[in-house]
Specification:
The complex is a heterodimer. Chain A is α/β, with parallel strands linked by helices. Chain A is built from 8 helices and 19 strands. In chain B, the strands form 5 sheets. In chain B, strands 4, 5, 6, 7, 8, 9 and 10 form a 7-stranded mixed β-sheet that branches. Classes of the chains: A alpha/beta, B alpha+beta.
């Protein structure tokens, strides 16, 4: 690809839009940053000015620190930045997660950020946006990754918790603190009213979700609880808490992990969880293919995870697809598995 | 089948041993006898002799999956298990709890034994075309759980984190028998079926299978650098022998017949006719525990020689002459039909020496080392490699012959392994719990300016190190060959191995025995790695000595 013609290209600071003079999800401090969502690998502190979807502004502020200049923008609202027109569209990944649409002299690019197509009661559903070039994530771009309906997974979680309760044991469910934890609490709220205990990292984020009007199970902070017995309780904790001294209080606990990676048995066994629940905030393989179709984009640039597999498959289907990193530099990106 | 699938799921979704035993016991209590027998057989590691080869399943998957072959291959590499890949790509979507067509309902009510005996085993005699059509039909009509399980049954090996000992515990719980009795009854020949289950849980010891070996007693490792003086106390309380590098085996002589069992409970009597012939001189009611070794006029031969005999069912006269095998016994478990396992080792040992005093050459007694104290034994151990043994065995004089790996009475005190500093050349994802992680590495040594592959090795690194390395590999891939990645040849690792031999099958002309990664040498660059000449020099000290 001719790099000069590219509206967005990767640099050492992250995705750069020269015509607009801004970065998207920069990995180092920049002057002007457009942020797709508040996960730590997309929203990093230190930049001068941030722009994100209004729905996610509170989360962004919490992530970036109180003195960061964070501006929110409504869904679909057009904003002139430099030489381009920019708008944000729901990505369905977590609360306030957005795709960024960039229009420059009649050419339209969409940067998907992380996204999913499955229904999620905690955020606006993904909205397909017609474009000429679609920059897509590819975290789970292999046909083995097909998600079961989240409602069924929630029912499985509840069944697991009940069975553990009957056996007089605590259940500790590991979920990413931002997004997954709230989605689980919202899905469970359709099935039960029982209170759940949460790790201290999850409580303030859940509060922001509640303020945004998301209905979830009531939660109590584990750290504020006096009682010592945890038998029969469900505790939601970030995966980083696994194996730490914090866990010791949950004597005899059974552990579960909610992630798309749990679709593969070996991943669960390696991490030593008792149960894996297949629940992902990323698009599964059918979701990726459907989305590429829905955008109508003749050209697709893939990034993250299995971009190699998605690109090769799309090319065989006759699309102009490239890996974002190799499209510009001829090198492979570091394909470290991001949070699933 | 559905009940067994539920058991599998229960075993697979807990890491707690007591929960596993409870789930197993509950299943065995409720299951029809034939289903229980098959469950015990499969969970204890038994296999159906190949209904379909893994390579056939892969071929059929490539042909029937709705994706291009390369994508199926990439997926299989990420999943790390053929049976699971098939279930994920081919089966009806996540199991519909009820419903399905009539045939599906019939499948659901079919028990494990019926599934195996009426469906899987008869398939062995069918043509490849019929097998392909039948199996791929199952893939499409079974839910993911049963599709996975049927694939696992066909290719053998359930691998669900259940050991033989754990199954024995559950059977003991169900039957009220002693665990050691159950473990003994699970040894040897086992034809799953209702009768086998009833015999396994029957009270008393009537109708015992005469061919049955005893459960093996296994030694625990003593670190190479550890001093036995601190750990084991008085030298006089211990017998010391060489740790032979052969095949652990039990020789059973009863009712005028001979059975030779390996530790993997494979019956190999016919493969070692010289040993079987010699055993005919033993009195009935004799069971020996020892090591099968290739042994010529000069004494024990390299393990590589024994390997020529291991796979051969029919042995040519020429091979018999070139690689004679003998059983070197180190324990006597039964004499005149009496179980001696609770006698002290010293008593068993004396009885063994008396028994084999005039035995043919193919039956010998593993000699004791006379070295009077620990330092003298340590000196003797240093001689191990030249003697083609792995080190020393230390056994407590007064110990009984126990069941399984019980620490305290039997120790293996191996020689420190050989090592080389090698460069990582290729990596590929592991299988099972290491799926999707680059854990299988190919290493090379320097040869002039080039690097020659010398060994593949898997483990040896901590999980954190593996994860870090996985990240590094993904970021430093220079080329991809399917699931294999060539990486920048800059990382040096210390590789340990038990032996080294010439090999025409390897590019380097050398084959390492049990290579494993000891540590990453971040202090070394690729120019500091060892050379092919360094590796060849090790030959002199080892098998060519």
């Amino acid at each position: 690809m001719d790099a000069r013609a590219a509206l967005v290209r990767p640099t050492e600071h992250g995705l750069w839009c020269e015509a607009g003079g801004f970065h998207i999800d920069p990995c180092r401090p920049v002057d002007r940053a457009l942020i797709t969502h508040a996960h730590a690998d997309h929203a990093r502190p230190g930049s001068r000015h941030y722009l994100g979807a209004a729905d996610g502004r509170a989360l962004l502020r919490r992530r970036l620190g109180g003195d960061a200049r964070v501006e929110g923008i409504g869904w679909g609202e057009h904003r002139r930045i430099g030489d381009v027109s920019v708008s944000f569209h729901p990505a369905g990944h977590v609360l306030g997660s957005a795709q960024v649409r960039i229009e420059h002299r009649g050419e339209v690019w969409v940067v998907s950020g992380d996204y999913k197509r499955d229904p999620d009661p905690t955020c606006r559903a993904f909205e397909p946006v017609r474009c000429d070039t679609f920059v897509t994530e590819a975290t789970f771009a292999l046909p083995a990754y097909v998600w079961p309906p989240a409602r069924d997974v929630a029912a499985d979680i509840l069944g697991w918790w009940r069975a553990n309760r009957d056996a007089g044991r605590p259940s500790v469910l590991f979920c990413y603190a931002l997004g997954k934890a709230q989605r689980v609490l919202a899905e469970l709220a359709r099935l039960t009213d029982d209170a759940v205990y949460a790790h201290g990292a999850i409580v303030p984020l859940a509060r922001l979700y509640r303020q945004a009007g998301v209905a979830m199970l009531p939660i109590e902070s584990v750290d504020l609880r006096r009682r010592r017995a945890w038998d029969g309780e469900l505790v939601i904790a970030p995966p980083g808490a696994a194996g730490t001294p914090w866990m010791r209080r949950f004597r005899g606990a059974l552990t579960g992990f909610c992630s798309g990676w749990m679709r593969v048995r070996g991943n669960r066994r390696r991490r030593g969880y008792d149960r894996g629940f297949v629940l992902s905030d990323h698009a599964d393989w059918p979701g990726l293919l459907a989305t590429v179709r829905d955008t109508g984009a003749p050209r697709v640039l893939a990034m993250h995870g299995r971009d190699d597999a998605l690109v090769r498959y799309l090319r065989e289907q006759g699309l102009d697809a490239q890996s974002l990193a190799t499209a510009f530099t001829g090198e492979r990106p570091d394909a470290t598995a991001p949070p699933g | 089948m559905r009940a067994f699938a539920a058991l599998y799921d229960a075993l697979d979704t807990t890491t707690s041993t007591s929960a596993k035993v409870a789930a197993l016991a509950a299943h065995l209590r409720d299951a029809p006898a034939a289903d229980a027998a098959w469950a015990v057989h499969l969970l204890a590691g038994g296999r159906l002799s190949r209904v379909a080869a893994p390579s056939e399943l892969r071929d059929w998957l490539y042909r029937h999956a709705p994706w291009p072959e390369w994508l199926v291959e990439e997926t299989a590499a990420a999943v790390g298990d053929t049976a699971e890949t098939i279930a994920l790509l081919m089966s009806a979507q996540p199991s519909a709890p009820d419903g399905g067509d009539d045939e599906d309902a019939a499948d659901a009510s079919l028990g494990l034994a019926a599934w195996i005996e009426q469906r899987l085993l008869p398939l062995r005699d069918c043509t490849r075309e019929t097998r392909e059509a039948t199996v791929t039909h199952w893939w499409r009509s079974l839910d993911a759980e049963r599709c996975f399980l049927v694939n696992k049954l066909m290719t053998g090996g359930l691998r669900v984190g259940v050991s033989r000992a754990l199954v024995a515990r559950a059977v003991a719980e169900v039957s009220g028998l002693d665990r050691a009795v159950v473990q003994h009854r699970m040894m040897g020949r086992w034809t799953p079926g209702a009768a086998a289950w009833h015999a396994l849980v029957a009270p008393g010891d009537a109708d015992a299978d005469r061919s049955r070996p005893y459960p093996f007693f296994l030694a625990s490792p003593l670190a190479a650098e550890e001093s036995p003086a601190d750990r084991l106390g008085d030298r006089r309380d211990w017998l010391a022998e060489w740790k032979w590098d052969g095949i652990r085996a039990q020789l059973v002589r009863r009712d005028g017949r001979t059975w030779l069992w390996t530790r993997g409970e494979e019956l190999v009597t016919d493969r070692y006719p010289e040993v079987a012939d010699a055993a005919a001189t033993l009195p009935d009611g004799t069971v020996l525990d020892g090591e099968l070794l290739a042994w010529d006029a000069d004494g024990v031969m390299a393990f590589a020689s024994l390997q020529r005999r291991i796979g051969r069912r029919r042995v040519s006269a020429r091979l018999l002459a070139e690689v004679p095998v003998r059983l070197l016994a180190y324990d006597l478990l039964e004499r005149h039909g009496t179980d001696l396992r609770n006698e002290p080792l010293a008593v068993r040992r004396r009885a063994l020496e008396t028994l084999l005093d005039a035995a043919p050459d193919a039956l010998g007694v593993s000699p004791l080392l006379a070295a009077p104290d620990w330092p003298a034994l340590a000196v003797a151990r240093d001689d191990a490699r030249a003697r083609r043994v792995e080190g020393l065995m230390l056994k407590r004089v007064g110990s009984p012959y126990r069941v399984g790996r019980v620490r305290g009475d039997w120790w293996k005190w191996k020689l420190a392994p050989l090592t080389l500093d090698v460069v990582m050349l290729y990596a590929q994802p592991g299988r099972g719990r290491r799926a999707n992680l680059y854990t299988d590495y190919t290493f090379g040594v320097r040869d002039g300016t080039a690097l020659v592959p010398i060994a593949k090795a898997y483990s040896g690194l901590s999980n954190d190190e593996i994860t870090r390395l996985d990240r590094w590999i993904r970021a430093h891939t220079t080329e991809r060959f399917g699931p294999v990645r060539a990486v920048d040849a800059v990382q040096v690792f210390e590789l340990a191995f038990e032996g080294i031999a010439r090999s025409s099958r390897h590019k380097s002309g050398l084959a390492l025995r049990f290579p494993r990664v000891v540590r990453r040498r971040e202090d070394l660059g690729p120019d500091d790695a060892d050379t092919l000449a360094d590796a060849r020099a090790l030959l002199a000290g080892a098998d060519e000595g």
